[in-house]
Design goal:
The chain has 459 residues and is α/β, with parallel strands linked by helices. 31% of the residues lie in helices and 26% in strands. It has 15 helices and 22 strands. The strands form 5 sheets. Strands 1, 2, 3, 4, 5, 6, 16 and 17 form an 8-stranded mixed β-sheet that branches. A 5-stranded antiparallel β-sheet has the order 18-19-22-21-20. The chain has a 4-stranded parallel β-sheet with strand order 10-9-8-14, with helices on one face. The longest helix has 17 residues, at 48-64. The structure holds flavin-adenine dinucleotide. Flavin-adenine dinucleotide is lined by residues 11-16, 34-38, 41-43, 47-48, 51-52, 115-116, 145-148, 166, 187, 278, 308-309, 315-318, 320.
Length: 459
């Protein structure tokens, strides 16, 4: 069925989809952007932005509770209503994307609200909220930015309970008395600390043997000890075998036979995609895959580009936007179009302490067969850490390819771990020789000065 002809259809308007759509429209192409939910995607409404607003409030509480050890007395009474109101009114505009739609339309794009599927090469069929179907044929092609949904593991009984995912957690009006968090990755850890600091008794159940398992083991150990100090219970190496809910109480049977209970349960156990429903098979791609394989220009097939979480190069907003820039340049056939380079991908878990990392972990570098040297230095050993005192947990770890004398990975954990990471991202991205990094002047007394100490420890 031939439909309206346009240059490009962007399916899914996550951060990257919104960006690539606007870039192409501003360049004069006829662009249709489609989203079944909200323009901007998960990040501004259900993920990065509201959770970081929660964390801003949580950090203030954490710091206020440190006052007695530094500056006198403090009496903190958390009030979740301030957070809930801020998220609703300031952060998400009551989960309304009118401003984002307007931004896209002002760039020259046409927005269609609805669920899209690929029905033939270069053909997209959209089911709009009133049940009608609109068909678009894309002369240049289709860009996919459909993102991911929260994964809900097939645990006996779980589906029948009123569990939360991140989409519920950012809309709650009240903090529960107790909360079980299933999953100890970045999302689980961030939200566990938020609800704990606002008064919930939190238990994290983590299948892996440590928290944030994609990061260095030292990061997981640091978070576990910080969480223990704050009263968050962390149970690693355990899975939920059965979940039930009755009269306002969740009961979770663990695979060691133990049973734990709480008022609420948050499932933060990864993300899922449905490539079959999206119809990528109509472009000749494997629709049983978890995502879409792309080349260094984000091409997935003739006339098909994909960006964001579904490409499997890191589920981060900055990745989605990086790939959007590359896809746009390729679609516009720009002469000096950039190609993707993932060596220096940064990632930050916004807990307190914050965990920032870039590039390869030590284990990943060794798995690649590199001749690895590592250096480690705790922040507490630095003058800034000594001055900071309470809440100074953290470290710098650097991973060097000793044959080339350059860093291939680094972790910066601590009070401003994500910010200090910036220097390490430059080092990994630009392959600044380690020798040169050791000749730099690091300001005194800063947290980033610990990079110098970690470099001196390379062995
Ligand atoms: C709780 C939480 C916190 C996070 N915090 C951070 C953070 O601090 N920093 C960071 O970098 N990342 C963070 N992330 C990850 C980040 O949210 C995603 O990586 C980011 O949103 C980019 O995703 P995306 O571009 O792939 O698309 P998404 O943002 O997932 O958007 C995809 C869009 O496509 C639409 N869509 C899907 N299928 C269709 C279809 N068939 N038809 C029409 N529309 C469709 C959806 O409605 C959605 O709007 C967090 C994630 C979570 C869950």
């Amino acid at each position: 069925m031939a439909g309206a002809e346009v240059d490009v259809v962007v399916v899914g308007m996550g951060p990257g989809g919104e960006d690539v759509g606007a870039r192409l429209a501003r360049a004069g192409l006829d662009v249709v952007g489609v989203d079944g939910r909200l323009v901007g995607g998960e990040c501004p409404y259900y993920a990065c932005v509201p959770t970081k607003a929660m964390i801003r409030a949580t950090d203030a509480l954490g710091e206020a509770r440190r006052v007695p050890r530094l500056a006198g007395a403090s009496d903190v009474t958390p009030d979740w209503s301030l957070v809930a109101t801020r998220i609703r009114e300031e952060i998400t505009d009551n989960w309304d994307d009118a401003a984002a739609v307007e931004r896209f339309e002002n760039a020259g794009g046409t927005f269609v609200r609805g669920w899209a599927r690929l029905t033939a090469p270069r053909e997209v069929t959209v089911t709009t909220p009133n049940g009608k179907e609109e068909v678009f044929t894309a002369r240049r092609g289709v860009v996919l930015n459909t993102g991911t949904d929260p994964a809900v593991p097939p645990i006996d009984g779980l589906a029948e309970t009123p569990y939360w995912t991140n989409r519920d957690a950012v809309t709650v009006g009240e903090v529960p008395g107790s909360l079980i968090v299933l999953g100890g990755g970045p999302v689980g850890c961030e939200l566990a600390q938020v609800f704990s600091r606002f008064g919930a008794a939190v238990t994290i159940v983590q299948h892996a043997d440590r928290l944030v398992p994609a990061d260095e083991p030292e990061a997981g150990e640091l978070l576990a000890s910080s969480f223990a100090e704050e009263g968050i219970t962390v149970r690693t190496g355990l899975s939920a075998a059965r979940v039930s809910y009755e009269t306002g109480r969740f009961e979770v049977k663990l695979d060691n036979g133990e049973t734990i209970t709480a008022d609420r349960m948050l499932v933060a156990a990864g993300r899922r995609t449905d490539m079959k429903a999206l119809g990528i098979g109509s472009f000749g791609l494997d629709d049983s895959a978890r995502g879409v394989t792309v080349d260094e220009r984000m091409r997935a097939a003739d006339g098909l580009w994909a960006i964001g979480d579904i490409t499997g190069h890191g589920a981060f907003t900055h990745m989605s936007m990086y790939q959007a820039r590359i896809a746009a340049a390729d679609i516009l056939d720009e002469d000096d179009a950039e190609i993707a380079d993932y060596r220096a991908t940064p990632r930050v878990t916004f807990t307190d302490p914050e965990i920032g990392s870039v590039g390869l972990s030590e284990a990943a570098a060794r798995d690649k067969g590199l001749n690895v040297r590592t250096g480690y230095a705790p922040l507490s050993g630095s003058t800034r850490g000594f001055i900071h005192k309470v809440g100074n947990g953290g470290f710098i770890k650097v991973v060097e390819d000793a044959d080339r004398g350059v860093l291939v990975g680094a972790t910066s954990a601590g009070p401003t771990g994500g910010e200090v990471l910036g220097a390490l991202v430059v080092a990994v991205h630009a392959e600044v020789p380690t020798k040169l990094l050791r000749q730099m002047i690091y300001a005194y007394p800063t947290f980033h000065r610990t990079i110098e100490t970690a470099l001196a420890d390379l062995h």
